[in-house]
Amino acid sequence: KPMNHNESEQFKWLLCPVCGSKTRIKMRSDTELRNFPLFCPKCKQEILINVTQFNIKSKVAGIFRSEPPFF
């Protein structure tokens, strides 16, 4: 069943923190992710991310860092 999108809801595509290309994940502004294994189909990398209110932190070498994640 397709989702009915309310015009007041904001959706954005999640971008890969490694290469910057668009992933297959579309997020709402109220979605939160913790320790989410994001896979990029372009660069074939998998990275752990945390997302809150369209702010992403990616875990690289055990340290979370902020990225510009959305298109």
Number of strands: 6
Helix content: under 10%
The ordered string of helix (H) and strand (E) elements is EEEEEE
Distance between the termini: 25 Å
Strand order of the largest sheet: 3-4-5-6
Strand content: over 45%
Reported for the largest beta sheet, the result is: 4 strands, antiparallel
Count of individual helical segments: 0
Tell me, briefly, the overall form.
globular
Structural classification: mainly beta
Radius of gyration: 12 Å
Q: State the low-pLDDT regions, or none.
A: none
Q: What tags apply to this protein structure?
A:
four-stranded antiparallel beta sheet; mainly beta; single chain; two-stranded antiparallel ribbon; 71 residues; globular
